[in-house]
């Protein structure tokens, strides 16, 4: 399986990259990509070259192309990334708030990836939410990823907004600062959650895993941030209380519990976080939390990702494609990337080879034109990092060329 799986992953990476580059829209030296507007399903789908976010727009594509170009020594991709990042830097007002996936911190990350100064992306105010998408956790993680000094005030804000649970801590955001998020918690104390605020969530995009990741990463690079580890441990302890060894972690957004294996609200992203924390522990970072629980949850999460991927292969063989295709956020890509990352952390190549084989089989069932593959939006044809082909290309490249140093999109590193 190994040789054929890897060669197939190479082919998928090249096809996705070719389609991504072919979809660009040029205006002089500027370059961008059409993006589907993330609107209510009752509104007709609309595509325009106006999204510059990390999540669904040009910042994410620039970050992906920069990482791929540098790792694979593809100068044409690096040059394209530079042009895209320059366009993002020229449109700071198109980014709502200072957040990572939907705001200016994402623009700064794209600029940093190609060696451009990101000063134009500085936000006039700190985010009023907590999560990785729009909030303080995302800004904190962006500071770490761009080599900036972590901001103590962001950690203090996360501490103030933490809500004490029966076990540990959680964060509940109200309406988000951007149209794509779940919530925006204003300044306040830990008790604000008792006054009708929404319930806290699990997971990487809007939940405790995303907050914990940012806190631990900041403490790993700045020893003076070590008090953040206790806050992270509390968030992970709360998530552990929801963990079901057979089903994983529930998605708490709906009335009925589901257990998705997604990057955003499910086992794929949460497994990647736990693998990253174990990797940091192996590098000598004292996490201040029991590693046995992290190992057990990472192992169980990988089993869930494996089952999910194998089921997707069987379904694709019967003509039933994943609703969001191979994309990162809520498609099969989150589980594939978690498996690939597991091989990087544990040294067990079986995870990567299984993922590479599944990638090829599902891609083969989706047809020849990547622009017609299912995406993370209502329509095919997304080029973005989290919902489209930029993310697919990165995931496939990491599975095909594990030693090249292609960044991990699940962790933005």
From TrEMBL:
Residues 180-191 have a biased composition (Gly residues). InterPro entries: 6hp_glycosidase-like_sf, LANC-like. GO terms for molecular function: metal ion binding. GO terms for biological process: carbohydrate metabolic process; peptide modification. The keyword Zinc applies. Transmembrane segments: none annotated. Keywords: Metal-binding, Zinc. Gene3D superfamilies: 1.50.10.10. It comes from the Bacteria. It holds the Pfam family LANC_like. Residues 178-198 are annotated as: Disordered. SUPFAM superfamilies: LanC-like. Zn(2+) binds at residue 264. This is Lanthionine synthetase C-like protein. It comes from Candidatus Phosphoribacter hodrii. The lineage of its organism: Bacteria, Bacillati, Actinomycetota, Actinomycetes, Micrococcales.
